[in-house]
UniProtKB/TrEMBL annotation, chain A:
PANTHER family documented for this protein: AMINO-ACID ABC TRANSPORTER PERMEASE PROTEIN YHDX-RELATED, MEMBRANE COMPONENT OF AMINO ACID ABC TRANSPORTER
Residues annotated as domain ABC transmembrane type-1: 89-378
Species this chain originates from: Ollibium composti
InterPro entries documented for this protein: AA_ABC_transptr_permease_3TM, ArtM/GltK/GlnP/TcyL/YhdX-like, MetI-like, MetI-like_sf
One Pfam family it belongs to: BPD_transp_1
Name of the molecule in the record: ABC transporter permease subunit
Sequence intervals crossing the membrane: 23-45, 89-116, 137-156, 176-198, 219-239, 259-278, 359-381
Primary location group: membrane
Family under the similarity heading: Belongs to the binding-protein-dependent transport system permease family. HisMQ subfamily.
Coiled coil start-end: none
Subcellular location: Cell inner membrane; Cell membrane
Database matches in Gene3D superfamilies: MetI-like
Membrane topology: Multi-pass membrane protein
UniProtKB/TrEMBL annotation, chain B:
Pfam families per the UniProt record, alphabetical: BPD_transp_1
Listed NCBIfam families: HEQRo_perm_3TM
Organism: Ollibium composti
Protein name: Amino acid ABC transporter permease
Membrane-spanning segments: 12-33, 86-106, 113-132, 144-166, 187-207, 213-230, 278-301, 313-332
Database matches in PANTHER family: INNER MEMBRANE AMINO-ACID ABC TRANSPORTER PERMEASE PROTEIN YHDY, MEMBRANE COMPONENT OF AMINO ACID ABC TRANSPORTER
UniProt family annotation: Belongs to the binding-protein-dependent transport system permease family. HisMQ subfamily.
Localization, UniProt: Cell inner membrane; Cell membrane
Record domain ABC transmembrane type-1: where: 142-331
Major subcellular site: membrane
Key words of the record: Cell membrane, Membrane, Transmembrane, Transmembrane helix, Transport
Membrane-protein topology: Multi-pass membrane protein
The organism's place on the tree of life at top rank: Bacteria
Length: 391, 347
């Protein structure tokens, strides 16, 4: 009976044979895709010729001849288009990195606040989350930018904030150190290594003798050493303090209103999403866990740190990774308020050279690379926090 | 009653830090709330022909909204004809609600959409039946925002279903094409897709074929949301038990019969919350078309604020627009929750 069925199937052959059908469909799909690509490519070649637009990546080595407001590497109008794109990429990365840090800090605060027992705090946090999540990010950026550039006083009238900081129409001005910063960074590095080493030792000790390892020595090493170094440098070298004049500020460091608005807008927007993710993560931990920890005599802080948060992170990390990806991609909204990120510099270059295909390909590749690196990092982190056996 | 009071007292003043928090919050409320209320309501100017009255009163200048709301809501669409986009907007909302209500079969829904789209386009473009023609570059404001969001998700839907099914396909070529498309689109920002559409579509099409800016933006939004929608639908597909597929195969159904009649209807039910979230995101993201020069709700408000007479009333203008966006998003999320509940009860 079975043999007969196989026999009919084999005799049927052709379209009714699964293997043949699979092959035929795949060849067909491939042919359609190749056809569409060829059609578009031929059109592209014809159109580029008709409009006499040059092709190739040679333009990357030509002089850009436009200024960029903010750059972390040496750049002038004589530099090449390639350098300009690099400046844009760095500006994008700086915003993404600072945005991730700030929004995580703010989101953690809001998330904890929304779980507060206090009937005044929790609704406020929830209200913030609901309001911010339901209004487009671009609108929020416009508002912050307008507030920072139109509603703040001019340099001469700007009020002096603590530590010699000024917030004026021209941006955030603050005192800087021209030398000695390396010492602070070195102290930070030493502190990180020492804290890591202490963590390993403390864990080994805890494994042998029981009891959770204390947190304060690590916090002291991480925060204390750089603070000491900073204090030392601040006492020995003079600060370059911004001074308001009639036409602006002289001296000091400055963060442009574009960057400030972008950072505030991006961080507050993403903080609302991160707060929700963390809240959901903490809520997902069974109440019995905290009760059991309390029954074992753990304090509230210890319960949170040793029992609840490790389990909450397991739930929260994948959506958190998604949120960081969104933040990195949303830095491209910088173009709307004139911060020179990758997208806005790419747009300028397209307008100057007309080589849209190449520039857009470079930009897309850069964003893809950023997205893939964030995914890779968060996958690694997720594997670390996931429960053993559930990875 | 006593228990409630003591419970409240514990939650407000249970510990020293909590008491401090409560006091600080109360102080902040007392300090901030009265000035805010005075600004927004008591000292506000509700209607005035010139901003001088606002400056005299000192509070919020809602007169700006009173003066400019037609410009903000409809952009540069000819003033006399603005009933047409309003009608089109209402029709689009009714179409979405009717198809989501699940009271009609798919033939009715499809027919309704075809007819509705034709009427909406007729209303917006005019040119026949005595309606004055209005070119697409004059379309703007709230109707443009809503039409882009709905048009984007409706056009993306078939594409997303194909991508989601393709990603689960056993055919390696089909699968890799779908995975590459989805992951590439999800890896880049919407702004870059919009730029790509506005710069590259003219280069990729034959010279005679001109695509206007609105259609290019719609194409970009469609492609972008299709990738995310495909992932939402894939999530739904994974929630359908494999027994369903096997049972359909045992009954002799073909792949497409199995997918369209058995698996997808169940998968889409599971995917409703994810799709609603996507739609909320998409509704907010349509504001990015302003960057490539389409006068959507947000850009129309920005242009209204460019009037030198009224340019200082940033907060009033943006609060008005933010309330519109928030109201739409709030409504979508409530509606999707109600839909979910209804489907759960029916099962």
């Amino acid at each position: 009976m079975k043999a007969a069925a196989v026999e009919t199937e084999r005799r049927a052959g052709g379209w009714n044979e699964p293997a043949f059908r699979a092959l035929a469909i795949q060849v067909l799909v491939l042919a359609i895709v190749a056809g569409v690509v060829a059609f578009l490519g031929l059109n592209l070649v014809g159109n580029l010729e008709a409009r006499s637009i040059r092709t190739g990546f040679g333009f990357l080595w030509q002089a850009a001849s436009f200024e960029i407001g903010q750059s972390f590497i040496p750049y002038s109008a004589d530099a090449t288009f390639g350098t300009a794109l690099l400046v844009g990429l760095l500006n994008t990365l700086v915003v993404a990195l600072l945005g991730v840090i700030l929004s995580t800090v703010a989101g953690t605060f809001v998330g904890i606040a929304s779980l507060s027992r206090n009937p005044l705090v929790a609704p406020l946090a929830t209200g913030y989350v609901e309001l911010v999540r339901n209004v487009p990010l671009l609108l929020q950026l416009y508002v912050w930018y307008a507030v920072l550039t139109q509603m703040l006083p001019a340099a001469a009238a700007a009020p002096k904030l603590p530590f010699g900081v000024y917030l004026a129409k021209s941006g955030l001005h603050f005192p800087i150190l021209h030398s000695g910063l390396w010492l602070v960074l070195a102290a930070l590095f030493v502190g990180m290594v020492a804290a890591f080493a202490y963590g390993l030792l403390a864990r080994r000790r805890a494994d042998r003798f029981g009891g959770p390892p204390p947190l304060w020595p690590r916090a002291l090493l991480l925060a204390g050493l750089p603070s000491l170094a900073f204090l030392f440098v601040a006492m020995t070298t003079p600060f370059d303090v911004p001074r308001p004049t009639r036409f602006g500020f002289s001296g000091g460091g400055q963060v442009s209103p574009e960057l400030t608005a972008l950072l505030i807008g991006l961080s507050l927007y993403n903080a609302a999403f991160i707060a929700e993710i963390l809240r959901a993560g903490i809520m997902s931990v069974d109440r019995g866990q905290a009760e059991a920890a309390a029954a074992l005599g753990l304090k509230r802080g210890q319960t949170m740190r040793l029992v609840v948060i490790p389990q909450a992170l397991k739930v929260a990390v994948p959506p958190l990774a998604n949120q960081y990806l969104n933040l990195a991609k949303n830095t491209s909204l910088a173009i709307a308020i004139g911060y020179p990120d990758l997208m806005s510099i790419g747009n300028t270059i397209i307008n100057q050279t007309g080589q849209a295909v190449e520039v857009i390909a470079i930009m897309m590749a850069a964003y893809l690379a950023i997205s893939l690196s964030i995914s890779a990092f968060m996958n690694w982190y997720n594997a670390r926090v996931a429960l053993v056996g559930t990875q | 009653m006593n228990a409630a009071v003591s419970g409240l007292r514990y939650r407000l003043f249970g510990s020293i830090s909590n008491s401090l928090l409560t006091v600080a919050m109360l102080a902040a409320f007392v300090m901030l709330l009265p000035p805010l209320l005075r600004w927004a309501f008591f000292d506000a100017t509700w209607a005035a022909a010139s901003p001088d009255a606002c400056r005299a009163n000192g509070g919020a200048c809602w007169a700006f909204i009173h003066e400019k709301y037609r410009l903000i809501l409809f952009g540069r669409y000819p003033y006399e004809e603005q009933w047409r986009p309003l009608l089109a907007l209402a029709l689009a909302v009714v179409l979405v609600l009717a198809s989501c209500s699940l009271r009609f079969g798919w033939r009715m829904v499809l027919g309704g959409w075809l007819l509705g789209t034709a009427i909406i386009l007729l209303l917006m473009r005019g040119g026949t039946l005595g309606l004055a023609p209005v070119p697409t570059d004059l379309w703007g404001g709230l109707p443009l925002t809503v039409l882009l969001a709905i048009g984007g998700i409706v056009c993306a839907f078939p594409l997303a279903v194909l991508l989601a099914l393709g990603r689960r396909s056993r055919l390696p070529v089909v699968k890799s094409i779908c995975v590459a498309t989805i992951e590439m689109v999800r890896g880049v920002p919407l702004v870059s897709v919009l730029f790509m559409a506005s710069f590259m579509i003219p280069l990729f099409l034959p010279g005679r074929l001109q695509v206007d800016a609105l259609l290019r933006a719609l194409a970009a939004i469609t492609l972008f949301s299709a990738a995310y929608l495909a992932e939402a639908i894939r999530g739904g597909l994974q929630a359908v038990s494999p027994g369903q597929e096997q049972a359909a195969a045992a009954l002799g159904l073909t792949y497409w019969q199995t997918s369209l009649l058995v698996v997808l209807p169940q998968a889409l039910r599971h995917a409703i919350p994810a799709i609603a979230n996507l739609f909320i995101g998409l509704f907010k993201d349509t504001s990015l078309v302003g960057i490539v020069g389409l006068t959507d709700l947000l850009l129309a408000a920005k242009q209204a604020l460019a009037d030198p007479q009224w340019r200082t009333f940033i907060v009033e203008g943006y609060v008005f627009v933010a309330l519109i966006y928030a109201a739409f998003c709030f409504f979508i999320s409530r509606y999707s929750r109600a839909l979910e509940r209804r489907l759960r009860n029916e099962r």
